[in-house]
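Exercise 7b. Backbone tokens:
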């Protein structure tokens, strides 16, 4: 999730074990420790832009790395807190603060290498947006109350409410998945090959859905109220990228071919050419608009220069009209035809 929420979760976790005289320093240690897992963002290469996305949320987010990550945090903090805590208490707060960083990121659609080195695949539960103000507010209030009252009861209560919120996200995702499977059946798509249902930005009501059938990705959105039936906003389809046919003329051992394979793995095989630019391979799971085909990120490729690395780029443009349409979807209201239709 966003870095502030990661820190808040670490702070609240540390507060659950804090004694009264430790109530001020424990959340600080937990907050800093909760951020340390994201230090993997510093792993990058000026010539290979895919390296950064491959190693972001990688081994530092593994459950098996928690003791080592916490030890690094404790060693970094020791010079500043040695006059107030012994090292064992410092390490306890550090390990609590670090412990759920990987799990929390796994709850998003981006995913983490949660079980590395046993498994090298990203694990994604798709139950919460990378930014979710409700979840963040729960943790913030729990941290503030535990700090002011100097009672870890409020930290435990906040963690319980945060857990309930994550559970509600899972239930919402299951409801949205059922709705989209019914939609696929009405289209005659009875045996879909891939399906992902993920929350749109900062909410658990509006879900972006992508499934693959007969060589095409179908992109739709489902608005699921807490106590109401799902409402479908139908999108469009886009032809899936096929490495066998689309890269038939490219040497399999070339740098670009290997980069494309790496991007396909990163994108969990949800890859298509940009609808307006066939020099860009897009991760179709993400778009600025719930039913949009324009990607949030992709790689620029030049098939005529297979010896060069692909260039990873992020595209954050969203028109004012599509922002208005997004808000209407979020409210479950009728949406006029888009500017591109």
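Sequence design result:
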């Amino acid at each position: 999730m966003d870095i502030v929420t990661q820190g808040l979760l670490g702070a609240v976790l540390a507060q659950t074990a804090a004694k009264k005289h430790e109530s001020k320093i424990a959340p600080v240690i937990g907050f800093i420790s909760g951020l340390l897992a994201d230090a993997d963002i510093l792993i990058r290469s000026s010539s290979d832009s895919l390296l950064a996305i491959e190693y972001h949320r990688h081994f530092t987010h593994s459950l098996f790395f928690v003791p080592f990550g916490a030890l690094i945090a404790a060693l970094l903090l020791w010079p500043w807190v040695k006059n107030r805590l012994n090292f064992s208490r410092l390490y306890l707060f550090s390990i609590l603060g670090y412990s759920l960083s990987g799990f929390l990121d796994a709850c998003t659609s981006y995913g983490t290498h949660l079980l590395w080195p046993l498994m090298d695949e990203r694990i994604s539960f798709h139950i919460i947006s990378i930014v979710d103000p409700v979840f963040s507010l729960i943790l913030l209030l729990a941290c503030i109350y535990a700090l002011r009252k100097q009672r870890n009861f409020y930290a435990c209560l906040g963690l319980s409410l945060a857990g309930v919120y994550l559970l509600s996200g899972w239930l919402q995702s299951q409801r949205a998945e059922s709705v989209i499977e019914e939609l696929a059946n009405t289209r005659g798509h009875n045996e879909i090959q891939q399906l992902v249902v993920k929350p749109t930005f900062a909410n658990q009501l509006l879900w972006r859905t992508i499934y693959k059938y007969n060589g095409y990705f179908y992109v739709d959105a489902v608005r699921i109220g807490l106590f109401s039936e799902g409402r479908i906003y139908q999108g469009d389809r886009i032809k899936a990228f096929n490495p066998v046919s689309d890269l038939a003329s490219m040497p399999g051992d070339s740098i670009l071919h290997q980069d494309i394979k790496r991007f396909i793995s990163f994108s969990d095989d949800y890859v298509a050419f940009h609808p307006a630019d066939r020099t860009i391979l897009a991760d179709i799971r993400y778009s600025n608009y719930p039913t949009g085909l324009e990607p949030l990120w992709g790689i620029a490729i030049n098939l005529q220069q297979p010896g060069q690395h692909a260039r990873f780029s992020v595209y954050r443009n969203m028109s004012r009209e599509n922002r208005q349409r997004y808000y209407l979807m979020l409210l479950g209201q009728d949406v006029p035809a888009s500017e591109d239709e």
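Instructor comment: The chain has two domains: 3-168, 187-330. The mean pLDDT is 95.
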